[in-house]
Amino acid sequence: MEELQQDLEEVKELLKKATRKRVQSVLLAEKNKIEKEIKNQTPLKLKADTSEEEKTPLTGYTVKINNYAWDQSDKFVKIYITLSGVQHLPPENVQVHFTERSFDLLVKNLNNKNYTMTFNNLLNPISVESSSRKIKTDTVLILCKKQREEKWECLTKVEKETKEKEKASYDTSDPSEGLMNLLKKMYAEGDDEMKRSINKAWVESREKQTKEDLPVDL
């Protein structure tokens, strides 16, 4: 390709100096010929580069990534995914596809496994062009560029809605009702020991209330 470019430049220079019509015609034909060769070679190179990236097929089975850490700066939301040995993979094996409200991560052929992670309905829109990923030692760092420099409460709309519902269920003007809701949640999510403790507290509370409601024996 470089040789052809040099030939083309030289022919162009000769065309500028040529005064005879026949010589100009020969040089012009040569110029068109070289330009055609360059044009035909360029897409071939691009096609070869593309095939190199797609050459690595998926092998093994695919694992969904559930564990991650995240933080943020004024401009970026940063998601950290720990994958042992990921720095040894070819860069094209770690792919991230961004949209304004989501991203998909695919890590191919890491220790005979593939790893995927998908985040949909991000809390706020991101810039697709300015978002990226970095490969560090045992870590993939995904950088989501914020469209607006504002603090994110969480990563997705679903997380925010869940938090708001939980807050509403405990935000009540009746303190005893809020406590009851909290105890119900603790009972539903607790282990056997927690449930026994709550049951015991509930029984003792009912017994105390019953004694207080009994009439005084005159």
From TrEMBL:
Subcellular location: Cytoplasm; Nucleus
GO molecular function annotations of the record: S100 protein binding; tubulin binding; ubiquitin protein ligase binding
Keywords: Acetylation, Cytoplasm, Nucleus, Phosphoprotein, Ubl conjugation pathway
Pfam families reported in the protein's UniProt record: CS, SGS, Siah-Interact_N
GO biological process, one term: heart development
InterPro entries associated with the record: CacyBP_N, Calcyclin-binding_UBL-bridge, CS_CacyBP, CS_dom, HSP20-like_chaperone, SGS_dom, Siah-Interact_N
Gene Ontology cellular component annotations, sorted alphabetically: cytoplasm; nucleus
Coiled coil: none
CS domain boundaries: 63-156
Protein's UniProt name: Calcyclin-binding protein
Name of the gene this protein is made from: CACYBP
